[in-house]
């Protein structure tokens, strides 16, 4: 199944540009999966260094070494206070919320409160890391994997989030992305990502939607997403698949982690009953039991019984106990309705019945648990169950495809996605005072009811004369302990703008504020202006100036709005100003303004003035730029420390293996090795003494030494070794160097003999010559000098012992031979002077030969043999035709 999927998608993909790749991360509480979309690279799940497709979402420290994924998970029971699991559960949660009490039940980590009233975890050495920082480290780890796989920088990322994630939690995800050095392309709801993956390889009939439920049982929650798939025709882009989320249901209190927790309770109780000791008082024991519960749950998915054995679980006691599936299921009896309620909630939100549903698509690791499968089967009927997507990978692959289509770097299958917000969002503001002494009355309007399409803007119109504040709230708390207030936006500069327009003749100017629900599910006050009709004398102009109520809303349903959260990021300015909308990096078409505004824009009169929107976060604030920079600095410092450590390790290893290599050279007493042949006893002794020192230093001080000390010590030894190495390298290179020198002697002599004969003949025949006698004499002098130098020193070298330094260096031999060669070729390539009456053919031949040599074809022997020259001449003639 996987291979057909991948290949059929590949055939749909063609790179449009090559500059950037898109990373997708499906970040779950237990596991994370990643995928990289890069032109020319097969589309698949990214593997980690152990070739694992699923990477545990864990970061931890083994003393001062930071570890990730499976390595970290395996260390959890040894370092229960330094290995952090399930950090996803802590995203944006207030310190005193239920989410934190649940976390402390399943985790042994030390939970503390941040200055932002959210949660940090404390290492055993006291160092504290916010949830955002710990997740950013994991994102950075994925980024590194992707970069070493892609061999290029990776920046843009799309990350999956549960559809029920509030704005606070979505902000925490984006903060972690930014701290990690990545850039948010978009967030995508995980059920929607699975739907994209499902649609990748399927076609749907016509415009009437075919409904499926994506049922996702994850580690932290269960959610169901009702999705309609239809085939739509677009004039510009042709036929495509439309994915519309119709309804979402969820339960944040039930998931794989709660099952693990209950199974661990069973095991802990069994331990207590048997050994009369409380394992819960032992952090390491609880961590061991947590891993064990996870293992037993997997066994009980396939078997009705499992035997749990943990060596030295706690108090030095080896634990052994039998657990049956029945016991486990009995302990989860109360959860059973919760497994399926999200399905009913989703159908209800969509306004559909089970009859309208074609299939229920299972995803998420916990769908392997039999009691969950059974509950779902009982609820929807066996014939509707579909196991046709990869339960672990559908979300990340769908997210990657969606990321690719947003980045517009790729040509992908035409899939359009309509998602929805799942919470009621309302706006509150103080009504304009009717009289100076009236009590301020506050007005609340539902702006984006649950089920509103994302990528929507709404405009609120106010008759105001002064600055005022719009607050955005969730109608109900999204989870126990979470606040409802999202943000407060001060609309600033109203009075001046009204005066300005009024002075220019506007009648009853009003304030218009634009509220956005972005594609990634963020709400914001994205824009505010004062708008007024400039007075014209016609009756219609006067009539147009009237506005009925004190405020009214108009909805602008646009194809899409910005993907990135509408708040400060290092890239945009500090204040969420009115220009946020226009400067958004939206890949979607610009929103179409309502018709009226379009006409107004065409009108020559300036009748809108932009206002400043100052946004304040009074509850769980997203991190400020300064806070993110600070976190980024902390993470960079860790990276740098690790890099220094890695370099030091490498220097140490190189030094150590150098010492062993040298020791082997010295030890090889019985063989006549080149090293031995070329060294004196005294030299070897000197090296041996220094080598012993170095070994001793390495063992005594190696753990504390600096990178540079390893280098210095190595250089000190190399200085002793080098002359010896040089001797045998020279002995090896000598024969070839000698051969080379002799070759040029021989070529030069051959040339001189022939050249002198020709010169004599030419003088006799009164023909022009290429050389003069003097030139040939000069070459002969050089040749003789070279020959005698060579003879003399080669003779001297013969009596040099192998353990003595050579008296003649091969580099010098080569240099001297080169001098001779150069002088020889200056004459060889000489052209024949223009003859008084040259024989045409011969002249042409000589010419061609000269050209060839001049062009730098390096001859291997003295004057090229005549046949070769002629052949070349033929070729050239052909070329010229
Ligand atoms: C759902 O099914 C009911 C009855 O089975 C039908 O009347 C209704 O039209 C269907 N709704 C949709 C949206 O298909
Ligand atoms: C009105 O605003 C425009 C720009 O929006 C500015 O150029 C002009 O000076 C202002 N006029 C007054 C009277 O404030
Ligand atoms: C010298 O060079 C010639 C030709 O390049 C080769 O045949 C011969 O084996 C070489 N002799 C030595 C000692 O390298
Ligand atoms: C000497 O003359 C012959 C015949 O013309 C020619 O082939 C040869 O290349 C000449 N030798 C040199 C060294 O120029």
Question: Which descriptors apply to this entry?
Answer:
881 residues, alpha+beta, Nucleotidyltransferase, domain 5, 3 domains, 6-stranded mixed β-sheet, 5-stranded mixed β-sheet, 23 helices, 31 strands, 44% helix, binds 2-acetamido-2-deoxy-beta-D-glucopyranose, ATP-binding, ATPase_NBD
* Proportion of residues in β-strands: 15-25%
Task: Determine the structural class based on helices, strands and strand pairing.
Answer: alpha+beta
Uncertain runs: 1-18, 540-551, 555-563, 568-604, 847-881
Return the domain count: 3
Instruction: Please report the distance between the alpha carbons of the first and last residues.
Output: 61 Å
| Cofactors, ions, other ligands | 2-acetamido-2-deoxy-beta-D-glucopyranose
What is the CATH H-level superfamily of the largest domain? Answer: ATPase, nucleotide binding domain
Shape: extended
Mean pLDDT: 85
Number of helices: 23
Strand order of the biggest β-sheet: 19-18-13-14-15-21
CATH architecture of the largest domain: 2-Layer Sandwich
Give the C-alpha Rg.
40 Å
User: What is the total tally of β strands?
Assistant: 31
CATH class of the largest domain: Alpha Beta
Biggest sheet layout: 6 strands, mixed
CATH topology call of the largest domain: Nucleotidyltransferase, domain 5
Helix percent reads 40-55%
């Amino acid at each position: 199944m996987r291979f057909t999927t991948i290949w059929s998608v590949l055939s749909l993909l063609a790179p449009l540009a090559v500059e950037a790749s898109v990373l997708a991360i499906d970040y779950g509480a237990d596991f994370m999966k990643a995928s990289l979309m890069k032109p020319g690279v097969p589309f698949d799940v990214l593997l980690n260094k152990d070739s694992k497709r699923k990477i545990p979402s864990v970061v931890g420290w083994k003393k001062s070494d930071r570890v990730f994924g499976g390595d970290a998970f395996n260390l959890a029971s040894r370092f229960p206070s330094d290995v952090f699991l399930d950090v996803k559960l802590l995203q944006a949660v207030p310190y005193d919320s239920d989410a934190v009490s649940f976390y402390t039940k399943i985790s042994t980590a030390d939970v503390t409160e941040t200055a932002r009233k959210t949660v940090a975890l404390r290492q055993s050495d006291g160092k504290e890391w916010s949830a955002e920082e710990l997740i950013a480290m994991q994102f950075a780890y994925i980024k590194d994997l992707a970069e070493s796989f892609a061999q290029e920088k990776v920046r843009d990322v799309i990350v999956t989030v549960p559809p029920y994630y509030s704005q606070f939690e979505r902000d925490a995800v984006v903060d972690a992305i930014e701290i990690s050095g990545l850039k948010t392309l978009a967030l995508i709801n995980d059920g929607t990502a699975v739907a994209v993956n499902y649609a990748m390889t399927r076609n749907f009939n016509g415009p009437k939607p075919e409904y499926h439920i994506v049922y996702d049982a994850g580690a932290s929650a269960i959610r169901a997403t009702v999705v309609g798939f239809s085939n739509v025709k677009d004039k510009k882009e042709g036929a495509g698949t439309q994915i519309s989320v119709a309804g979402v249901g969820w339960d944040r209190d039930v998931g794989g982690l709660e099952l693990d927790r209950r199974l661990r309770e069973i095991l802990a109780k069994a331990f207590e009953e048997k050994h009369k000791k409380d394992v819960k008082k032992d952090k390491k024991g609880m961590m061991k039991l947590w891993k064990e519960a996870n293992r037993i749950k997997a066994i009980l998915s396939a078997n009705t019984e499992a035997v749990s054995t943990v060596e030295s679980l706690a108090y030095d006691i080896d634990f052994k106990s039998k657990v049956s599936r029945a016991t486990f299921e009995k302990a989860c009896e109360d959860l059973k309705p919760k497994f399926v309620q999200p399905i009913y909630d989703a159908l209800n939100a969509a306004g559909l019945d089970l009859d309208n549903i074609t299939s229920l698509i299972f995803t998420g690791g916990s769908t392997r648990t039999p009691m969950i499968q059974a509950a779902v089967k009982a609820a929807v009927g066996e014939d509707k169950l579909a196991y046709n997507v990869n339960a672990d990978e559908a979300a990340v692959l769908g997210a990657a495809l969606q990321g690719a289509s947003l980045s517009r770097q790729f040509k992908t299958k035409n899939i359009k996605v309509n998602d929805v917000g799942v919470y009621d969002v309302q706006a509150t503001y103080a009504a304009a005072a009717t009289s100076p002494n009236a009590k301020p009355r506050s007005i609340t309007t539902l702006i984006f009811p649950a089920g509103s399409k994302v990528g929507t803007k709404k405009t609120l119109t106010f008759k105001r004369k002064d600055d005022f504040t719009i607050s955005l709230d969730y109608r109900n708390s999204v989870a126990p302990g979470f606040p409802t207030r999202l943000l407060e936006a001060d609309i600033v500069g109203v009075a001046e703008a009204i005066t300005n327009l009024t002075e220019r003749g506007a009648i009853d100017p009003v304030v218009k504020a634009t509220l956005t629900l972005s594609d990634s599910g963020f709400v914001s006050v994205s824009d505010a202006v004062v708008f007024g009709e400039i007075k014209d004398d016609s009756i219609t102009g006067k009539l147009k100036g009237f506005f009925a109520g004190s405020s009214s809303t108009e909805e602008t349903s646009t194809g899409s709005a910005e993907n990135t959260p509408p708040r400060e990021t290092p890239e945009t300015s500090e204040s969420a100003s009115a220009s946020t909308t226009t400067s958004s990096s939206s890949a979607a078409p610009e929103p179409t303004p309502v018709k009226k505004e379009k006409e107004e824009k065409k009108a020559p009169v300036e009748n809108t003035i932009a206002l400043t929107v100052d946004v304040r976060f009074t509850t769980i604030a997203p991190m400020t730029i300064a806070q993110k920079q600070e976190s980024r600095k902390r993470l960079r410092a860790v990276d740098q420390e690790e890099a220094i450590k890695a370099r030091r390790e490498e220097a140490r290893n190189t030094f150590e293996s150098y010492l062993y290599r040298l020791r082997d050279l010295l030890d090889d007493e019985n063989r006549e090795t080149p090293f031995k042949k070329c060294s004196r006893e005294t030299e070897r002794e000197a090296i041996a003494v220094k080598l012993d020192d170095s070994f001793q230093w390495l063992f005594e001080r190696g753990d504390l030494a600096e990178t540079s000390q390893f280098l210095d010590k190595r250089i000190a030894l190399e200085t002793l070794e080098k002359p010896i190495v040089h001797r045998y390298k020279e002995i090896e290179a000598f024969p070839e160097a000698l051969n080379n020198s002799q070759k040029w002697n021989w070529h030069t002599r051959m040339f001189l003999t022939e050249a002198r004969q020709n010169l004599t003949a030419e003088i006799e025949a009164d023909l022009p010559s290429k050389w003069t006698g003097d030139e040939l004499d000069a070459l002969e002098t050089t040749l003789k000098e070279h020959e005698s130098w060579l003879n003399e020193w080669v003779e001297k070298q013969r009596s040099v012992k192998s353990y003595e330094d050579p008296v003649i260096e091969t580099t010098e031999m080569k240099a001297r031979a080169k001098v001779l060669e150069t002088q020889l070729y200056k004459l060889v390539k000489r052209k024949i002077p223009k003859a008084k009456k040259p024989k045409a053919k011969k002249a042409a031949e000589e010419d061609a030969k000269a050209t060839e040599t001049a062009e730098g074809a390096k001859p291997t022997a003295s004057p090229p043999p005549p046949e070769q020259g002629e052949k070349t001449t033929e070729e050239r003639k052909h070329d010229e035709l």
